[in-house]
Specification:
By secondary structure, the chain is of the alpha+beta class. The protein is built from 17 helices and 28 strands.
């Protein structure tokens, strides 16, 4: 129809259009993966997103996006249908995920996979392909395997699993992993607590399935959404074991997980014990062993944080790596506690709603009122960590979370509660609505110790201000610049790790400029980072960094009141600022020469 020339140029045009389309698609995919991969960028406060969802930091230090099931954030993936939500799509393939291996999804299933992902914010399609009794590697150290041969003398336990709209496959895989990997003598029963789930398969089909479980399993239901705290309390009230073991509804217990926990409680019933929480990958459901020497604490904004036993702390402990060790705080989802102790020590704060803050409340209460919290490295349980939360928060996530945290601060943190309210506007507002009389009475009745005691004794490496520490801004007189802590904003992420920053001092007291200097000479700030410099001369200039606090002398400083010099204790050199035209100011160590750029002023800020 067309002459050959026209036809050729038409073909060329089509080719160009086609290539452009391919380019656009590749580019979009690239953007999307980048976006999904950036869960490490940590927003300082809540960010409210267009879709009516909100973001905040999860207890595990991972960015969490919360909201109603409003469908998905991915524009070209259709929402899950009513059927998809309510139908049990469990479709196991014998070898899928065996030995904790990742599930591979074929390209033809990718769209459905993405649709299903939105429902629970983990790869439901992958989970639904893995049998309920999949095999897992034995991740324990050798020594753990023979350590608990006297397990028959341990107290028995009820395993309590609360859930709201959990997937069939994850919920029942949790149950079966308990059944298959716990000694029958120790497992009294399993208590499932349904917190007002809406899924159809969790109604009669679940009830019909229960008789297939070869361990006594109770199913309690709440008609009203009561949140995980009250749901756990409901489970606890109906439990008969001597010990209560709480698990999230998307866990998998590994061989020998239970004995080490119960062994600690047998020796000291006032110890609350946590397993090492391994990672079940939210995308592939691969089982990934995590570092055994992690312990938990929190930052100035009361976000739960993991820290590693490292540096001096590790040297000092010279610990047998299979020995349980103390942790100032627990993650909250997975732990075991003597039942009588649980109730004596105040169970949970019933004034808290839905989710969040309860782990810190319990951590402070246990330590301050005469108990202890330990992590047991021989016990490994996997948990599906997700990047966002799939369900609604009646009352709004912000209200709920900050009200819960305000209660924690009011009841347990004394002056440090005031510090928290000073930094956190939302919690300060939420504070006014809290009635904590009953919890204060409990604290009185149990003769609980102060937060000062907790910081000094349980968490001596903490980075909070105290009366015998400097707290405030550190200003360079020569350049009129202030020391800045690393901000985990995108901007910081793109910076070389640990480069200490210094910038124009701001009028307001902003958090990023606030530092603590301890009596031992550590200059530290939120999230346990410290001013750090090499102890010996190297080749180039001696760069000063902000790195994880280690307790080593390379992080020790001395401020001389008269000369205003800030000296590195072990090499006696002075903290200085180098600023060349066109370059950002840099912190370096130099021989002390009395110059003005080696003078530092400490401006205290009232912290409570
Ligand atoms: N949960 C509940 N009611 C709620 C919120 C959560 O029963 O209102 C359950 C949830 O199904 C899970 C456990 O509490 O088994 C912990 O919640 P989630 O896993 O979302 O918390 P995360 O692991 O993210 O801290
Ligand atoms: Mn969970």
């Amino acid at each position: 129809m067309f002459p050959p020339k026209v036809r050729r140029s038409k073909r060329l045009l089509f080719t160009i259009i086609f290539l452009t389309l391919v380019l656009i698609i590749v580019w979009r995919i690239h953007i999307r993966t980048n976006r999904d991969g950036d869960f490490l960028s940590i927003p300082k406060k809540h960010i409210f997103r267009e879709s009516g969802q909100e973001e905040y930091m999860g207890k595990n230090g991972i960015k969490v996006i919360v909201g109603h099931y409003v469908g998905n954030s991915k524009r070209n993936v259709p929402n899950a249908t009513y059927d998809m939500l309510n139908k049990n799509n469990f479709d196991p393939r014998p070898e899928a995920g065996s030995m904790g291996n990742p599930v591979v999804v074929e390209p033809k299933d990718l769209l459905v996979m993405q649709q299903l992902f939105q429902i629970n914010r983990f790869n439901l399609l992958a989970s639904d392909r893995i049998p309920l009794n999949r095999t897992l590697p034995d991740v324990r150290r050798k020594k753990c395997r023979t350590k608990y041969d006297d397990y028959k003398t341990y107290p028995t336990t009820s395993v309590i699993i609360v859930f709201h709209n959990e997937a069939w496959s994850t919920l029942l895989r949790t149950v079966w992993s308990v059944v298959n990997r716990s000694p029958g003598e120790l497992l009294e029963e399993i208590v499932l607590v349904d917190d007002a789930s809406e899924r159809e398969y969790l109604r009669k089909p679940l009830e019909d399935y229960l008789p297939k479980i070869p361990v006594r399993t109770k199913l309690l239901r709440s008609q009203r959404r009561i949140g995980l705290i009250k749901a756990r309390l409901k489970g606890a009230a109906h439990a008969h074991g001597q010990v209560l073991t709480f698990l999230d509804a998307h866990c998998e217990c590994t061989t020998g997980w239970l004995e080490p926990l119960l062994s600690v409680i047998k020796r000291n019933p006032k110890t609350v014990v946590c397993p090492v929480i391994d990672i079940i990958h939210d995308d592939t459901f691969a089982y990934v062993k995590s570092f055994e020497l992690h312990w938990g604490a929190f930052n100035w904004n009361l976000q739960f944080r993991w820290f590693t036993l490292s540096g001096k702390q590790l040297d000092e402990r010279k610990l047998d790596t299979t020995q349980p060790f103390d942790t100032p705080a627990m993650a909250g989802g997975l732990f075991a506690v003597d039942k009588a102790v649980f109730f004596q020590i105040g169970s949970y704060d019933e004034g808290m709603d839905v989710w969040g803050g309860e782990n810190l409340e319990m951590s402070f209460r246990i330590w301050q009122c005469g108990g202890k919290i330990q992590i047991v490295p021989c016990s490994h349980v996997g948990h599906v960590f997700r990047k966002s939360s799939p369900y609604s928060f009646p009352g709004g996530i912000s209200n709920v979370l900050y009200s819960n945290l305000a209660r924690v601060a009011l009841v347990w943190m004394d002056d440090w509660g005031k510090f928290y309210f000073k930094l956190n506007d939302k919690a300060r507002t939420a504070k006014e609505r809290q009635n904590v009389t009953a919890r204060m009475e409990l604290k009185e009745r149990l003769h609980c110790k102060s937060f000062r005691w907790y910081l000094d004794t349980v968490w001596p490496q903490h980075f909070f201000p105290t009366n015998d520490r400097f707290f405030g801004k550190i200003r360079n007189l020569g350049k009129d610049l202030c020391l800045l802590r690393p901000l985990r904003s995108d901007k910081w992420i793109n910076q070389p790790m640990g480069v200490a920053k210094i910038d124009r001092c701001l009028e307001d007291d902003i958090e990023e400029e606030m530092f603590v200097m301890t009596q031992d000479g550590f200059i530290m700030t939120d999230d346990s980072v410290c001013l750090d410099a090499p102890e010996r001369d190297g080749l180039g200039p001696m760069k000063v960094r902000i790195l994880a606090c280690s307790g080593y002398s390379r992080q020790k400083w001395e401020h001389e009141k008269n000369s205003k010099q800030l000296r590195h204790v072990s090499n006696r050199k002075c903290l200085d600022v180098s600023k060349e035209k066109g370059h950002e100011a840099e912190l370096i160590l130099k021989d002390c020469d009395g110059s003005r750029t080696q003078q530092w002023e400490f401006h205290p800020i009232p912290w409570k």
